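Closing statement on the NAP sub-project.
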Amino acid sequence: MMRALILGGTADANVLAEDIARAGIDAVYSYGGRTRAPAVQKLPTRVGGFGGVSGLADYLREERITHVIDATHPFAAEMSRNAIAACAETGTPLLALERAPWIKASGDVWIDVPDVASAVTALPDQRAHVFLAIGRQHLAPFGARPQHAYTLRFVDPPEDALPLPDADVIVSRGPFTLAGELETMRTRGIQWIVARNSGGTGARAKIDAARALGLPVIIIARPHLPARPRVESVAEVMAWLGHRTCLGA
Ligand code: NAP
């Protein structure tokens, strides 16, 4: 009997869950638990870590999972590495649903860096208004460049004090439009952007806005993962599960 586990927390995972629910496939949707009120799903959900590779392997066995779809964010590398290892250990088929990274286009002013630490050092020395479009767990290293005025954007309001002396917080879930991003950058006087190469359309608007305004973007490359089967569309995941897509994604 087929029983799928979706490792989710992304817009793509939500579309996949909708399709899987419509197809009547037995499945569980798993959230990491970082967002206080995650999107409502038609599938049964579970929330929070499994307890590393061994915890996930135990879960796969106990829940009799036959297929794992890793539809987590491309920067959720720990979860993805754990899924590769736990699926190998238990012999569970794994497929990653991973949107393609953005490719630099004409007019983009990109400074490519391999990680957050390099993004910090790539910032200018002179004070600038910087839009830090990264997860809140990666803010602390930017404390080494306190001369800048930072604009941050989170899904939930921050609970703890921020590690940056001059930070302006926008609370919004997205997806974001080009017009909205242009407005944000103009009204806040943004001069530099730090972003991760997440790919996809929902987060793309800030990159398009930066190009339109000629602003430099320090773009953090995706973390390296061991090789794994991967596709870029929900339809390909549905085909892997032996079903046709209902949504045409
Ligand atoms: P991460 O650093 O790779 O994961 C850290 C730990 O959190 C994992 O080892 C796992 O704990 C737990 N975890 C992560 N995703 C999980 C999931 N879907 N279900 C159950 N446990 C999960 O991940 P992250 O960057 O903190 O991202 C957490 C979640 O937020 C993911 O679901 C991701 O898709 C979503 N998200 C992340 C980003 C981002 O920028 N990274 C953006 C949008 C959405 P155990 O080891 O205990 O199993």
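The first helix runs from residue 11 to 22. With this model delivered, the sub-project is considered complete and its resources will be redirected to Aim 3.
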